[in-house]
Task: structure prediction
Amino acid sequence: ELLGDEQSGQIETIGFTLYMEMLEQAVNAIKSGKQPGDDLVLNQGTEVNLHVPALIPADYLPDVNGRLTLYKRIASAKNEADLKDLQIEMIDRFGLLPDAVKNLFRQTALKLKLTPLGIAKLDASDEAGRIEFAAQTSIDPFTLVKLVQTKPGSYKLEGGHTLRFFFNMRTMDQRFNVIEQVVTELQKEPNS
Result:
């Protein structure tokens, strides 16, 4: 296995992309003779945790270095076209994508959509999800208020920076579909 239980737990806690950024910075610190510490400068991208397997399994790609290279390339993708090209390349080289790899791509595409909106964190599981907004968000506060007022069974504001949502999201497809729906709602004009 590429990662032991401890590292897998860390990834689930902080999110894959953030973990990869921290790992890369720690490796660079060691290469330059420094001690990796708590002063890591992290990308301000959205942290996404959907509690679904989102990885490249060893039985799909046994080579550890190959997996690490692909993780880095996926995490570094600038847009959905980059991700699509990587998917095509992986299918050509290694065969059809397992569900865990599909989830990895979907989760990364989601991050690319959420980061420009000023969403700091998205966490979603079987029946509920939470969106934490960054200090600088493009989401209109009136849109949030209207959403909570018109759909109080599905949405709830917590504090000034968190929106909770409640839907059946037991399958991976349901989870991704609900999140897309929530993001669409958040981008609506408050008067529409």
User: Anything to note?
Assistant: Confidence is low (pLDDT under 50) at residues 38-43. The beta strands are 47-49, 119-124, 128-133, 155-158, 162-166. Helices lie at 5-14, 16-31, 64-75, 80-94, 99-114, 141-150, 172-186. The first helix runs from residue 5 to 14.
